[in-house]
Amino acid sequence: MTEKSRALRLRGSPYCATVMPRIHGASIIVAQKMDGASSNSFKVLGYGYAKDTWNVYYDGCKIDGASSDSFDVLSDCYAKDTWNVYFDGKKINGASSDSFKVLSDGYAKDTWSVYFDAVKIEGASPEGFKVLRDGYAKDTWNTYYFGRKID
Asked: pTM of the prediction?
């Protein structure tokens, strides 16, 4: 799939459709079977996530190692299972599934770290971290704008 194409999930189906860029004013839709997906147990969870009895998928691709039994979508980008936290279908290394909370505006935190769009904000304190609005946030010592510390 190219950057300009995008995946669509067909409701209640183990098929994925890819919308390719416009060619001579028309979009091309290519449908492909999602290998290994069970149509009998397939459920669309929302925000690109889906699962069946055995696997979890994001935009039509299997998420390796994700637990279907405990998988939960937290927001438009974040999800978790018993062991891991995911952002846009990719595992966030080091994030604690037990304590992970989505805040707002792309910010999230666990017991030890604060994240913006899945990127750990170095030096941010999760204990006193607050999202303000319009991309701004603060902790006890610093202010942040879209995850970057304001000097």
From this structure: 0.78
